[in-house]
Design a protein that fits this description.
Largest sheet of chain A: 6 strands, mixed
Helix content of chain A: 25-40%
Number of strands of chain B: 0
Number of domains of chain B: 1
Shape of chain B: globular
Strand order of the largest sheet of chain A: 7-8-9-3-10-11
Order of helices and strands of chain B: HHHHHHHHHHH
Structural class of chain A: alpha/beta
Distance between the termini of chain B: 41 Å
Strand content of chain A: 25-35%
Number of helices of chain B: 11
CATH class of the largest domain in chain A: Alpha Beta
Number of helices of chain A: 8
Helix content of chain B: over 70%
CATH architecture of chain B: Orthogonal Bundle
Radius of gyration of chain A: 23 Å
CATH class of chain B: Mainly Alpha
Structural class of chain B: mainly alpha
Number of domains of chain A: 2
CATH superfamily of chain B: MetI-like
CATH architecture of the largest domain in chain A: 3-Layer(aba) Sandwich
Largest interface: A-B, 23 and 16 residues
Number of strands of chain A: 15
CATH topology of chain B: MetI-like fold
Order of helices and strands of chain A: EEEHEEEEHHHEHEHEEHEEEHE
Oligomer: heterodimer
Distance between the termini of chain A: 41 Å
Strand content of chain B: under 5%
Chain lengths: 290, 223
Amino acid sequence: MMDIQIQKKLDSPSGNMVLDVVFTIEEGQMVALFGESGAGKTSLLRILAGLLQPDKGRISVHEKIWFQSEPKVINLKPQERNVGFVFQDYALFPHMTVLENLQFAAGKRKNSNLQHLIELNELGDLKHKKPKNLSGGQQQRVALARALAQQPNILLLDEPLSALDDNIRRKLQKHLLEAHKEYKLTTILVSHNVEEIIKLSDWVIELHHGKIVEQGHPHQLFASKEINEDFKVTAEVLSIESSGNSFIAQLLVQNHVLKMSFSQKQGKSIQKGDRIVLASNDFKPNVYKK
Amino acid sequence: MIWDPLLLTLKLALVTTFLLLIISIPLASWLAQTKSKLKPVIETLVSMPLVLPPTVLGFYFLVAFSPGNAFGNWLNDWFGIKLVFSFPGLVLASILYSLPFMVHPIQSGLSSISPSLKEASYLMGKSKWETLTKVLLPNIKPAVLTGIVLAFAHTIGEFGVVLMIGGNIPEVTKVASIAIYDEVEALNYAAANFYSAILFITTFAILLSVYLINGRYIKPFWK
């Protein structure tokens, strides 16, 4: 179990703010830190890893104190925390091959079983390649395998999938979930992708300007904001023109362009470039498999 | 012997470069990551030899280490170290004089590496030393090579500092650049030309090889 209670003054692009959070994470959970950029998610992750020192507070993990500001200052170095960390830029060592990266992380640990990690992450064909010859998704898999090679107690991921396209992203989510279960890890993941959080995590902590504004199970947390309508999506208006008694608009919904007709009254109230919400309280869709 | 000044120059450049490398790696890695208020002062001191006339350095060196003064006398009495008009003195002065040529490339190389590489290594439980030698330095080989070669070539080209504190003692402090000056004063142009041509060709070849390797025109031996 991780008990976290910390305060830290941060210089953010939007001025000074104080990261001030108290929360608990059960062993074996996958927890997502959610919130807009600049909310303090990455700083919180860096504090847990020991890369950033909090001003005040206490962090204890499995009853061992990692940090405390009083009565006596204790601050374990990053080297002493055995945390697996997947950086946003992956931080693969450019002069080492994939296998060497894993071996370096495993160090003298006997049971790291690199062969199994290589298979789990489908790295067999890549093991003698240098990172610069890998695609983004491949680099991400190496970064994950490398973080696991050191047999960490805790795995921290800083928006690991944000730079990847949807297909690779889904595949890597699967890898991540498998590894999390197999190695019985406690995983903390920074993400601003709701779909990803719902798929992966058992608990979400939402940060806003350095404070926790909400936490709970992802389904409840994300659903609670949408109780007024049965269904709604956000769309961007690409074009709108009048056609007889109605208006025809082209809308961008996620990656799809839809054509819809609007009544005179609705059509006059929206313009090209607007962001609008399409809502329906009596929504009965036809469902079919892709 | 006519080769003595050249051999002495080579010896001075090799010893100086080797010691500089040992000193500059920790110094450059400190400068690359420190947030200390002392940093600008240290950076200024390291860069001073770039703009200061070598004679200024030589003059203060003479004043400090002359056996006629308290400090120089104490060094001589207690340790038997005589730094004025001696080879060890030349080495010490050359190290100070070529310091920016070794420190600057290594410092800028280290600053250009993403900090997450260092952090990733720490999180794997690696010490600062292991991180420096196994992660950081291998990724800035061109910068280290540039530092080594510039420091070596710059030491070959020293004149003012050497003349001030080394004088012109054959086989002890008479390096090639001094020998050229000496021969010209004696109107012995053939000998001066001999030394000059060798220095010209050597430094040209050294610098050219750096530009070829770092510009990827030829493949370095470590790849």
